Amino acid sequence: MNRRHTNGFTLAEMMVVLVIVGILAAIALPSYQSSVRKSRRSDARVALTETAQMLERCQTQFGRYDDPACPVTASFVSTQGYYTITASVEPGSYTLRADVRGVQASDSACAALTLNSLGVRAALDGSEAATGTCW
Length: 135
What we know:
single chain, alpha+beta, six-stranded antiparallel sheet, 1 helix
């Protein structure tokens, strides 16, 4: 009696596995990348909120937002480096803006987040149109 004993996989079995893995990767990878972009937006929210708190302390302490003793700089990079924060400060008001940078620049749905002295939050997409899904 002649027995054939095979070890391993056939080419057809390997191709089926590769096709399945490819399909799963094509579905999962974009979803994962979108989730990562959304989670990085917290870097901008934290930077804007902390800067607004510093400016509010200046207003309380000195009676104006733009006092020279206030520690807020006109432009800086957020803690994790995904956003550039710019502050437009006047005696009675301020506007803060976080613009995407680096690897986060692919987030065209929420390219900029803003916060002003009235507490109004806004978001802009890559074409500077308002969007409401970022905050």
